[in-house]
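Q: Catalase, please. Structure only.
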Amino acid sequence: MADTVSHTQYETYEGGSPEAERVVFDELARQLMAVQLKNRGRGAHGVERAFHAKAALGVENARLRFDESLPAGLASGWVQPGAQYPAVVRLSNASGTAQPDIAPDLRGIAVRVEVSAEETHDLLATNFPVSHARDAREFVAFAKAMAGARNPVQKAFGLLVKLPLAVGWSTAARMRRNVQAATRHVVGSLARETYWSRGAIMWGDAGPVRYQLRPAPGGAPAPRPDRHDPDLLRHELAGRLALADVEFELCVQRFVNEKHTPVEDGAAPWREADAPVVPVGRLVIPRQDVTTAEARAAARRVEASAFNPWYTTDEFRPLGNLNRARKAAYRASAGHRLGTRFRTEEPLRNTVLGVPVRAAFRAVNRYVPWHRLPLNLSLLNLVALRQALRRFNLIDTEVPEAPPRAVPVPERVDEGARTARTYDGSSTDLSEPRMGAIGSTFGRNLAPVHRPDLYDVPNPVTVARELLHRTAFRPASSLNILAAAWIQFQVHDWVNHRRYKTGERAVEIPMPPGSAWTNTLGGPPEDVMRFAENIGVRRPGEPPLLFTNTTSPWWDGSEVYGGDEATARSLREPDGPKLRLEDGHLPVGANGIPLTGFNENWWLGLSVMHTLFAREHNALCDALHAEYPKMSQDRVYHTARLIVSALIAKIHTVEWTPAILATEAIDVGLKTNWQGPPDNWLSKLGLWLVEAHALRGIPQTLPDHHKVPYSLTEDFVTVYRMHPLIPDDYELREHRFGQRVETVGFDDIQGVAAEGVARKTGLTDSLYSLGIAHPGAITLHNYPKALTRFERDGEIIDLSVVDLARTRRRGVPRYNDFRAGLHKQRVRRFEDISSDPETVARLREVYRDVDEVDTMVGLFAENPPEGFGFSDTAFRIFILMATRRIQSDRFLTVDFRPELYTPLGMDWIARGGMNSVILRHCPELAAMLPRDASAFAPWRPVLPERGNGAGS
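A: Structure for Catalase:
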């Protein structure tokens, strides 16, 4: 609170609070990235600075020295009498386009003072005393009006038409006057210009100041400009520095009061009569030859730097609206220019047509749901729905920096992180390295609901027993059990909540009257069911609804490779790129569970998936080494990981998902996500009109977080509660003759028992056994019995009760609110949830009204579209987050390219799929795999010889 007070002593925040202002500034930063794209021009490569695009000088050997006679009131922190520091200096034109130096323009200076390895201060100034804009909104409006203007006609149109439309006629007139006064000045030498900070900064205990850099007395006057030389300012500086030092006096004007020295208004001058100019130091650019190879290399390093007035300390932080906006704006602009942040412009036709198209489909869907429309209309309907979900159902839960804080200059991007996935998911977004890293928070698709009074209403034990527990196995006949194993394999890569250790802190659920629960092996019956509570993140004044993800939510194969370097290296062979295997199987740890990236909730299905993809990694290592024998061991490992992770993403997108959502629209839509739309003019026309970016597969586009930093969400976790897929019993068969080996229960193939069965059965027969059998349907009364009394970490839990209780305590809205938040009509009666009379009767017995129905219960009860393995409501979270997992990831978009993956890797992914992975390691299964469906559809069973079906 004290920090907020110190900031607001001189400042007033737009929207009434730093948080509200931050939202505005983030949007303005995105708009500046669009300005950069327009300034790039046709045929240009790369993105320039949004402003000050053309440099005249960049040096690393300047120095700043403070005067011995520095006034006592101005000595603070790094500013001390006689102190001297090295500095980096960049002099430039102010325009966002590289134009001839004789063109009317402002000029600028950027100075980075290097106090120590940990402390630097960036000083930025322009050769006119005040800004043309009072605040950030005006500043960006001007930039947008002038974006891409390269000739007098375009510039006049921007100033006289675009700008007034954006800010109003009187404001535009004032801004034009300032700009014209500033650019009318003819500049012959950047060394003889005075540069003003415009905005104020704190100056330690002295309070706010504006600073300026003015030419030191002496020195040669500016020559008459050579109008025939487009680079006259650079050439003039080179000639001047070849003869003598270039020196500037650093001066400050101190804050007097808001009337005479306003902090918030960047367009208001601080007159010398009110705030005298006080010299405090001298900036010296030493005599040198700036044409040598060494000097040119230094200039390139300066060009690759990003200057920001917020790269300082809190004692010297920038002040005022314009300055506060500069932190987000400059970081976005620098990231865009340096290729670490991206901006995709939406075509105007998409912007204009999107609104009526979405409105039309909202109206249509009141009477006809998307899945009952003709194919092309249903696909367009899904596009419109996804656009609405992106707009309204992405909620960031990370604490925004508001107000902005001073920070050190960010470390340069680790070169290894540019070409390979990090162990913990960091630097997947190079502009925000911690986005999506282990320890980041779960996001939200819907605003959370904190109702502790309803945690146990109705009793979750009663709900589970009456509505979830399996009464008779209901198969999902279009799938095989590999589909159930696959989704658990994926979820372990994406999401995991931290739990307290058993006995530390528990959730207690009261048992219904007349029943008891044994919470530990051999323990006494109790009147409560107890299980470990999730470890949340506590923020002052907020309900306890925030949790961190202990795995990275990127599609990076962390379930195979691990989430930290120590684990990842322990899983590798001692001196090679391959993963450790023992006779083709995962090594077993001291606890009897295999060693792999994520091995909780272990069972035979997970063993199959982990073993299969560990072998796939090793096969890739062999292929990469053979094709590129000079590639290092580490490079082979990381490249194989990239390829395996992308192949997994492709399999999930174009195989698993169309298998569980078996409709033509989903099959076409998901394949469009990966490889672009079918060669159908009507489909392409619809996308061209409404979402042109979808005309290519997502891997051919740029990363896009859709204005919200990437994360997976608590709502996503809820819809992926698919435990009914797990059968309670399994028949293990050998693939050659189809004979039964044994029949086992789930308890016989989970936990420490799983790997013994896996090794005895072998990967080929395990795959075959799971491939010919059906999983359970995701519906009510089909929760596996084995998981309703399940031992985990010394606890005995009913996982169905845990699922219900976790969802309530994490603040996920209940079913009716969940539906409404995802743009579906609310249900008014239990009959609106399900058409099955028995289900309706049971819902009415358990719940007092439809608004009480648990989210998971409603999703399971809902009648899904034809061919769907889960509900249409759950599907809405899916269509939003499924594309987001690809679209946000640079390794699946802008860096999905042969330079990182190798040509071999790109071909491996393009040709690969679940079938190819299975056949590479178990070629004897070729005849059993489906001919015209994915490997997640039921396989052809080998019929045993008569009399041998029992395997006896």
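A: Brief note, in case it's useful. The radius of gyration is 32 Å.
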